[in-house]
Amino acid sequence: MARVKNIEAYCTVCGNINKMELAGEIPVFDNPNKRWAKCKKCKQMVIVDITINEQSKVNIEDINFEIFSEYSPAKTFVIGESIYHKTWDDYGRVISKEISSNGQNSIKVEFQKVGQKKLIESVLEI
Predict the structure, then answer these.
(1) Which of 38, 51, 63, 126 is most open to solvent, judged by the fewest CB atoms within 10 Å of its CB?
(2) pTM of the entire predicted model
(3) How is residue 2 annotated by DSSP?
(4) For residues 104 and 52, what is the distance between their CA atoms, to the nearest angstrom?
(5) CA torsion sign, 3 to 12 to 41 to 17?
């Protein structure tokens, strides 16, 4: 029996970050990290980029409370950057980034109070 691999990625059909089951490779030579994935919410197949740039274990105590960026979906962040989420009144550090097949960026942030959360970034406002 094949081993199932689940990831969290942006679903272009649902418009949200959902859990997805990797279903197969795409024969594309320019980017070997693209895979077919089935959204567990809407059951549709989408192409995702599984490239993940993840730092080693993040130390929450090292968050710089004096130099941080306030979270906004329109902003772009870098791994290791300290951020503040106004709605949750919580500080965190960016631990990884992902890009879906449609170019939608997301970041994974380790927060002090709410733990790990995945947030959208670089969304253009219309």
Answers:
(1) 126
(2) 0.53
(3) P
(4) 14
(5) positive
Return the percentage of the chain with pLDDT > 90, whole number: 6
**With respect to CATH, is domain 60-121 assigned 2.30.30?**
yes
Q: Please report which residue ranges of 1-126 form alpha helices under DSSP H.
A: none
The winner for highest mean pLDDT among 3-7, 30-34, 40-44, 50-54 is: 40-44
For domain 6-49, the CATH class is mainly beta
CA distances (Å), origin 37, targets 52, 75, 76: 16, 27, 25
Q: Where are the domains of the chain?
A: 6-49, 60-121
Residue range 63-78, pLDDT digits in tens? 666 788 899 988 888 8
